[in-house]
Amino acid sequence: MAGRLTETLHRILPVAAGLAALLLLWEGGVWLLDVPVYVLPGPFAILGTMVDNAGPLGAAVQITLGEALAGFVIGSLLGLSIAIVLVLAPPLETALLPLVVMLNSVPSVAFVPLALIWFGLGIASKIALASLAVSFAVLLNAIQGLKRPEQEAVDLMRSFGAGRLGILWRLRLPAAMPSIVTGLRVGLARSTIAVIVAEMMGAYAGIGQVIYQATAQIDYLVVWAAVFLSSLGSLALYGLLTLIDGRLVWWR
């Protein structure tokens, strides 16, 4: 237990020290150069604004992260399920994979107007966009990982009587876990971006709507505070995913 705590401290302390040094340099640079607030406020002013508006900002970021997390879960399950079907049915992969790659080349934010028209300004449109953004990332990485085992290993399992599902569960999925986790990492970032952009274009609540309204009111400190808080929330989700990664891919 003490060894794990020491290892965790060794990982966290350098990051915390680097972040503190960056904030001090930022604050000192803004003060020395007398940078206007509307160009770049100091970090302490931003943190003060976060404290002063903790209630509204906290409620907004909870909505945004909830939408992003819901879309992340749905998109991950959808992408992994489709990847398994395509790998088990090669003709479908040949027919559909080019279409998937074509759609993936279009930024998910380009679908924001359509999502707002189809699903409205509520949370449904945000979850749909996040699911779309995540599913492509997980799908492509999962296909790559599921096809990683050598054909000799597949043939060996078949010689022992394993069917397609047995090979999938005992060989392909364990071999694909690193690629799947990579897709999850990319998808998590995509989901947060998609939700915030969608909220800025049309929403009843959320951190993206806070940023939009604060920009319209020329309240730059609130804009920066909202950006800071959303970054911290995304970092917390990323930390959670890292813990899951350690559990799923324990052999790395």
From TrEMBL:
Identify the main location.
membrane
Cellular component, GO annotation: plasma membrane
Instruction: Look up and give the membrane topology term.
Output: Multi-pass membrane protein
**Transmembrane region positions?**
12-33, 68-89, 96-121, 127-146, 167-187, 193-212, 221-244
Q: In this entry, which stretches build a coiled coil?
A: none
Q: Which keywords accompany this UniProt record?
A: Cell membrane, Membrane, Transmembrane, Transmembrane helix, Transport
Domain ABC transmembrane type-1: from-to ranges: 61-241
UniProt key word Amino-acid biosynthesis: no
Q: Where in the cell is it found?
A: Cell membrane
Task: Indicate yes or no for the key word Transport.
Answer: yes
The Gene Ontology biological process annotation of the record reads: transmembrane transport
Q: Origin, by domain of life?
A: Bacteria
Which InterPro entries does this chain map to?
MetI-like, MetI-like_sf
| Family membership noted in the UniProt record | Belongs to the binding-protein-dependent transport system permease family.
The name of this protein is Putative aliphatic sulfonates transport permease protein SsuC
Species: Methylobrevis pamukkalensis
Organism lineage: Bacteria, Pseudomonadati, Pseudomonadota, Alphaproteobacteria, Hyphomicrobiales
